[in-house]
């Protein structure tokens, strides 16, 4: 990714998509390190994090992360999940945040030079195209190295830059990862003594 020192940057994180991509690559995101990385690249205007929350649960495993992000520099965009029964009679939970992310990115376009989208969802291709028409560069961060790949080919083609999430892992992975795992993510040989 190319950055310019006075460039105004905004980050848009599709929480569920980024979580799945990082899990598929075998590491956890350190959101403090992620914020520091992009603050060092330019003028970070805003870092948005999008996730749906199950409101009826007594304890949600994502709640501590949401609270931490909210107090540590992220703009949280959440909404309750919706429960429904599918055609086969199975209980399903839905919590899509695509519209919220799209509206925020379009509204921010006049205030930024570079949008960084952490998602591989092909539904965002038209959004990326619309933001680019407003003069904003768009980098997409996702992965094609997971099985199955998380990044849509259409989205990768539309982006000004596609960044493989695995290549960012040394800069944004949580430190608790075993040394062998970090070495593997960097593509270095793993020494088993």
Q: What are its keywords?
A:
single chain; 193 residues; alpha/beta; Rossmann fold; 6-stranded parallel beta sheet; two-stranded antiparallel sheet; 8 helices; 8 strands; 37% helix
What can you tell me about this protein's structure?
With 193 residues, this protein is α/β, with parallel strands linked by helices. The chain has a single domain (8-79, 90-186), classed as 3-Layer(aba) Sandwich (Rossmann fold). It has helices at 15-25, 31-39, 63-71, 98-108, 125-133, 153-158, 165-172, 179-186, and strands at 8-14, 43-53, 75-80, 82-85, 91-94, 114-118, 137-142, 161-164. Strands 3-2-1-6-7-8 form a six-stranded parallel sheet, sandwiched between helices. Strands 4-5 form a two-stranded antiparallel sheet. It starts with 7 loop residues before the first strand and ends in a 7-residue tail after the last helix. The mean pLDDT is 89.
- DSSP helix fraction: 25-40%
Distance between the termini: 37 Å
Query: What overall form do the CA principal axes indicate?
Result: globular
| CATH level-1 class | Alpha Beta
Report mean pLDDT, rounded to a whole number.
89
Sheet of most strands: 6 strands, parallel
Output the number of helix runs.
8
Return the structural class: alpha/beta
SSE blueprint:
Elements: E1 8-14, H1 15-25, H2 31-39, E2 43-53, H3 63-71, E3 75-80, E4 82-85, E5 91-94, H4 98-108, E6 114-118, H5 125-133, E7 137-142, H6 153-158, E8 161-164, H7 165-172, H8 179-186
Parallel strand pairs: 1-2, 1-6, 2-3, 6-7, 7-8
Antiparallel strand pairs: 4-5
């Amino acid at each position: 990714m190319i950055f310019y020192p006075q460039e105004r940057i905004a980050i848009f994180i599709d929480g569920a998509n980024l979580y799945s991509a990082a899990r598929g690559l075998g590491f956890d995101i350190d959101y403090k390190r992620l914020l520091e990385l992009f603050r060092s690249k330019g003028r970070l205007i805003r870092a948005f994090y999008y996730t749906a929350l199950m409101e009826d649960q007594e304890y949600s495993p994502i709640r501590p992360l949401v609270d931490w992000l909210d107090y540590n520099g992220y703009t949280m965009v959440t909404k309750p999940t919706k429960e429904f029964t599918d055609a086969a009679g199975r209980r399903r939970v839905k919590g899509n945040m695509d519209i919220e992310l799209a509206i925020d990115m379009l509204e921010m376009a006049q205030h930024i030079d570079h949008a960084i989208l952490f998602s591989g969802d092909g539904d965002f291709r038209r959004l990326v195209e619309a933001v680019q028409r407003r003069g904003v560069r768009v980098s997409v961060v996702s992965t094609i190295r997971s099985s199955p790949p998380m990044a849509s080919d259409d989205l990768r083609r539309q982006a000004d830059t596609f960044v493989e999430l695995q290549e960012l892992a040394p800069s944004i992975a949580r430190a608790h990862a075993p040394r062998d795992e970090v070495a593997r993510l960097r593509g270095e040989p793993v020494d088993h003594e």
